[in-house]
Specification:
four-stranded parallel beta sheet, alpha/beta
């Protein structure tokens, strides 16, 4: 268990605000506004556990997670979205509980939707504990993906089979805005504070990696929802949760109700995956390949078109000067050599291209995309946050965090992701793509399945950059406060992690 925090009150006396493209903390105690920046983690399971059995986390688990973030100096965490009941779960009593559920009229535009109180109670408690540990929380409303139910499930509950109708159907849009309004006006059952009046909420994010038919979310949807949020809650920041890889419409960039743009950085091949120098090198390699193929084809089919094959003539034994006969003879080995060399010079550049692509996938240029995204955001007076980054090496993370902290390119960066202790003992573990795993604080060696080989290095890196960006929030060493008595758990497992 992480070290106990002896401070039982929140220091949040103000909301984080945007001024132009920077975020500021107007703390009345300091009587001056200070820039707000952070390096921390996504904690997707803070309000619902997806690893193993789908269930709400206990107070013990939420406290462990947020104690870890406080010790890291993270200041901000981002949870995952609110889950949505799926069509296949409507008549299934054993289906997992969701945050957004239908009570009647499913499959029609008159469906009655509400929040599942036991699920929302876990979010209430997470915010209450976060306030105690001086950690602010980003809350994304809904997911583009269907892991927990997302826009497709929400549209389906209204009788729409096309997920894009979530953004275009007036009835679905009105229904979603109604639920968002209910959420903003919700009174926390633990603290008694309305969400819209709680500084623990860092920002409302319109969703996670939102896109419509693989394209950019309609600007009208984003602007409509942002205006609705601000009309109900003028205290909090609004973060556009559309998938940043698709870019942003000019209308969204110019909308004063949108405070923050965000993007998620993972390995993949896009136009921004390579530098300008690499593209120049690729062009040279492709040119060599094309020329080699042309020469090879000519050597095989039209050898007389190649000067060294057309003019190269020698005399065979029967054409000696003594016989006086002059018949030219082209040695076949020269033509064969030309074909083989052409084949080599056509395959070698392709092999080098494949090598560079694989290398880039393992060492993606997150910094290049960050510079482009943050520059666009600042040009339009929007703050920029790296909402997720991961599935790469420690060196890649370091270069990105250098841009965030030293280059001041973003207001914050959140690594994907952190898991915490389990009520059953040990840690929750979570496997990602390509052999990557979720991380744990303060970092452990990979002695058991589910722990990343570089976890200790990554955990140390995040903590060091959190200290760089906010040195007052984290001491040089973990404070020697008196921990709570150890919690003894009942378990029959022989393989705790």
């Amino acid at each position: 268990m992480a070290t106990e925090n002896n401070n039982n009150t929140s220091s949040f006396l103000s909301f984080i605000k945007r001024r132009n493209y920077q975020l500021w903390d107007d703390n009345p105690l300091s009587q001056t506004a200070v820039p707000f920046q952070f390096v921390s983690y996504n904690v997707p399971n803070l309000h619902v556990i997806e690893d193993g059995t789908w269930t709400v986390p206990t107070e013990f688990e939420q406290t462990d997670a947020l104690t870890s973030i406080q010790q890291i100096g993270g200041r901000v965490v981002r949870i995952y979205t609110l889950s949505v009941q799926k069509q296949s779960e409507l008549q299934d009593p054993s289906a997992p509980a969701r945050h957004i559920v239908a009570t009647s009229g499913t499959g029609t535009e008159n469906v009655a939707l509400t929040f599942n109180e036991p699920m929302m109670g876990a979010l209430d408690r997470a915010l209450a504990i976060a306030a105690t540990y001086n950690v602010r929380v980003i809350i994304p409303f809904i997911d583009n993906w269907e892991w927990w139910g997302g826009v497709a499930s929400f549209a389906a509950l209204h009788g729409h089979t096309n997920p894009s109708d979530f953004y275009t159907s007036p009835a679905v849009r009105t229904s979603f805005k109604r639920l968002v309004g209910i959420l903003l006006n919700r009174t926390n059952t633990v603290t008694g504070v309305q969400y819209r009046n709680d500084p623990t909420v860092f920002a409302w994010e319109t969703g996670n990696e939102l896109e419509s038919s693989g394209q950019r979310v309609p600007a009208s949807w984003t602007r409509d929802l942002a205006a609705h949020i601000k009309s109900v809650d003028s205290n909090h920041l609004v973060m556009d949760g559309s998938f940043g890889k698709h870019g942003w419409d000019q209308q969204v960039l110019d909308d004063p109700n949108v405070d923050i743009l965000t993007n998620h950085y993972y390995p993949g091949l896009t136009l921004s995956s390579f530098s300008g120098g690499e593209y120049a090198g690729f062009s040279v390699l492709l040119l060599i390949t094309v020329l080699a193929i042309i020469v090879g084809v000519l050597a095989m089919c039209f050898p007389k078109r190649l000067p060294w094959l057309r003019n190269r003539k020698v005399m065979s034994a029967e054409h000696s000067p003594l016989s006086g006969r002059k018949k030219p003879f082209r040695p076949p080995h020269l033509r064969l050599a030309t074909i083989l060399i052409s084949l080599l010079f056509s395959l070698l550049p392709l092999g080098l291209l494949a090598y560079f692509i694989i290398t880039r996938l393992r060492n993606p240029l997150y910094t290049q995309q960050l510079r482009a995204d943050a520059s666009l955001a600042s040009t339009h007076n929007k703050a920029f946050i790296v909402g997720e980054f991961g599935l790469a090496s420690v060196d890649v993370y370091k270069r990105l965090l250098d841009e965030v902290v030293e280059g001041k390119m973003a207001a914050g960066a959140l690594l994907w992701s952190l898991r915490f202790h389990s009520r059953d003992g040990g840690f929750y573990t979570h496997g990602e793509l390509d052999g990557y795993y979720a991380y744990h604080h303060p970092g452990f060696p990979p002695t058991h399945p589910g722990f990343a080989p570089d976890e200790q290095s990554v955990a140390s890196l995040i903590r060091s950059y959190a200290a760089k960006v906010n040195p007052a929030t984290i001491p040089a060493t973990i404070p020697a406060t008196v921990p709570r008595p150890p919690t003894l758990l009942n378990t029959t497992s022989t393989s705790l992690r």
